[in-house]
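Usage

Read records sequentially. Each one opens with the input sequence:
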Amino acid sequence: MVLQSVIAPLPAFLITFANGLLFGVWWGAALSWSSAMLGAALCFFIARALGRPVVVKLLSESAMNTSDRFFQRYGQHTVLIARLVPVISFDVISYGSGLTSMRFVWFAVATGIGQLPATLLYSYLGDRVSGSIKALFWAFGIVIAVSIIIWLVKTKTSHHKHVL
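and closes with the structure output:
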């Protein structure tokens, strides 16, 4: 979830669903919630430390303009509203918050409260999946993990060959 927040390769609800599937409602929700909190904090502090030019490179000017408009319209309540509405990008709001004068404490409280309903819902739905699908999901996850490891090893070894 932390990597998902920073580089956003997957929608967060899929990871939360998977955590519910693999670890049950409560452990899946706890893992998803705490990881999302850490990822949101990381995005906030990246934006705060490195500024808008870096955030625009990570996201896009269009995404940041959307974030700006949302902050102009809803002010301090932006984070809470955005966390409660699942179609609003978690990452864009986290980065956007870091570019404002918002205190981190308010950001963290609003993020924690706002993401809780969806986290519990997706974890619950993941937990309700039957056993055979759960086994298939584990197998798929292992195949993906092994594929990523092989790709990383190949990339690293080919990079070293070009350096030498």
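Summary fields computed downstream for this record:
- The chain has two domains: 2-129, 130-164.
- The mean pLDDT is 86.
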